[in-house]
Write a structure and sequence with these properties.
The chain is mainly alpha-helical and about 250 residues long. The protein has helices spanning about 1-15, 25-30, 40-50, 55-70, 80, 85-95, 105-130, 145-160, 165-185, 190-220, and strands spanning about 230-235, 240-245.
């Protein structure tokens, strides 16, 4: 009896014998743990403080000088494409039949919600703070939108496939970090812009990851599979609207 009880408990914690997480495991993995907010909050806080701190602004200037002024070079468009690589990886893994935690419909909605939230937060901060870019082209430097977009998808990739292999998340974060570096390499962002952008992207995905199960239960009812969901959104550039996601 003791062995049977132990096996049942282990199944509830780790999932079923065929490797598919059970309901208890899935609920636990989507619960809000405030300690997980420390990393994105720290990154965003660094970016905010760097706009006021003389020492951190000097760090921004020194890195910009090292990357651009002292070693002048031609700009590269790679960052415009690399920012989408974690998102492409999510789609590629699904098409290849490598399943993560969610069904394709749920994952698609999570990505759409994360993208909209990240875009809204990033553009709102850009318009509010009006930081000049290193190349003085405009005042939309803080935070880096390319970086926030890349880290948003990288965090979703990590969460979705963390029980399959941690290397998917590592690869996504490497691509996101490279995107941030190239934004500085192209003289489009300060170091603090990139750091804050990473925080905004990670935070956007984490918020959606933890709130989506609640929204899903509210929208379609407990215990039912979602096929269609309508989510409101707002961005400073496009205004308010509705995002429709349907699984055929």
């Amino acid at each position: 009896m003791a062995l049977a009880s132990s096996a049942q408990t282990d199944s509830l914690v780790k999932g079923t014998s065929n490797g598919i997480p059970d309901r208890t495991d899935t609920i636990r993995s989507t619960q809000l743990h405030p300690l997980r907010l420390i990393i994105p909050a720290t990154l965003i806080t660094y970016g905010v403080i760097a706009r006021q701190s003389g020492a951190l602004r000097n760090l921004n200037n020194n890195l910009s000088d090292d990357l651009w002024t002292r070693h002048h070079h031609s700009k590269t468009p790679i960052d415009n494409y690399l920012q989408w690589s974690p998102a492409v990886a999510l789609l590629g893994l699904q098409l290849a039949g490598i399943k993560g935690q969610d069904k394709f419909a749920d994952l698609s909605i999570k990505y759409g919600m994360s993208f909209l939230l990240n875009t809204a937060l990033t553009e709102m901060i850009k318009k509010s703070w009006k930081e000049w870019r290193p190349d003085s082209s405009n005042q939309y430097s803080f935070p880096s939108g390319h970086t926030s977009n890349a880290f948003m998808a990288a965090e979703l990739l990590r969460l979705e496939y963390r029980n399959v292999s941690p290397w998917y998340g590592v690869a996504g974060y490497a691509a996101a970090a490279a995107t941030g570096f190239l934004r500085m390499y192209n003289n489009k962002h300060w170091f603090s812009d990139v750091v804050a952008g990473a925080g905004v992207g990670i935070l956007s995905t984490d918020i959606v990851w933890w709130t989506y199960p609640v929204l899903k239960r509210w929208a379609v009812g407990k215990g039912k599979d979602v096929s269609t969901m309508i989510v409101p959104y707002y961005t400073p550039y496009t205004g308010a609207g509705l995002c429709l996601a349907h699984h055929f």
